[in-house]
Amino acid sequence: MTDKEPPNLADVIEKMAKGSDVIVAGPGALDDLKDAGVEFDPPTELPPEETLDRLFKTRRRAASVLIPHLPEIPQHIQPNLGFLWNEIIECAIFGLHGAAVTLLGILVEFALKQATYKAELGKWAYDAEKWDEFESMTFHPAVLRARKAGIISEHLREELLRFKDEVRNPYSHYNIKKITAQTTAGKVRVIDTRTGESTVRNIPVGDEPALHAHAKKLVDTHQLLRALPFAAGLIEHLFGGAPSESA
């Protein structure tokens, strides 16, 4: 009785890769494949102009699908907040959804500080010393100060702190494991580069660092479409004359 000959890795990978647009290799996997004689074609280098043309065509197609789902700029937005809002929308249109979500965290914090500053001062005026106090403040104290000033309700205070913990902080600190923790990569074709054995698995992304970056791109889009309306509603509440609820 003879041992079964292990499968040819090159043949297995070629078969498994059909219909796939992403191949992820864990640490050391590429070295194992090279040792097994698997050859990889170098990436095709394109002239800069052609690279840009392809990039913009891809971005344009994606943007045409995304734009109808983006909220309009809040009606009562302040000019400096408006510049930041437009920067966020530009990031979204060009496919930089992670950057857009990060900037949204900044927008929400800045809007809170501006509205609280105005409420405490009683008018729109520039007090450099007072504004310096707000600029040195982090998100959580800014939320508590806005609540004390009476410009947000207790419910909104809770929502803002939830936004801080679930969106703002993970993106600001690039906690990629936390961002992707609730994501599962379904029906992933997996090959053991040492044995040649292949399986199809559902993989919790939080436990697999090799999948973090790929999964994050999908999470970014989901978070963007949730966080944009939240930010727009907050700005309307803070600057549109909406009365705050009593505790």
Structure overview:
- The protein is mainly α.
- The protein has helices at residues 9-17, 29-35, 48-66, 79-93, 97-121, 128-135, 139-148, 154-172, 176-180, 209-239, and strands at 184-191, 198-204.
- Strands 1-2 form a two-stranded antiparallel sheet.
- Helix 4 packs antiparallel against helix 5 (97-121).
- 23% of the residues are buried.
Helix-strand layout with pairing:
Layout lengths: L8 H9 L11 H7 L12 H19 L12 H15 L3 H25 L6 H8 L3 H10 L5 H19 L3 H5 L3 E8 L6 E7 L4 H31 L8
Antiparallel strand pairs: 1-2
Order of helices and strands: HHHHHHHHHEEH
Please identify the structural class as seen in this structure: mainly alpha
Main pleated-sheet profile: 2 strands, antiparallel
What's the overall average pLDDT, rounded? 86
**Cα-atom radius of gyration:** 24 Å
Structure annotation, total helices: 10
Report the count of strand segments: 2
Low-confidence stretches: 242-247
- The CA-CA distance between the termini, in Å, is 80 Å
Shape: elongated
Question: In percent terms, what proportion of residues is strand?
Answer: 5-15%
Strand order within the widest beta sheet: 1-2
Helix content: 55-70%
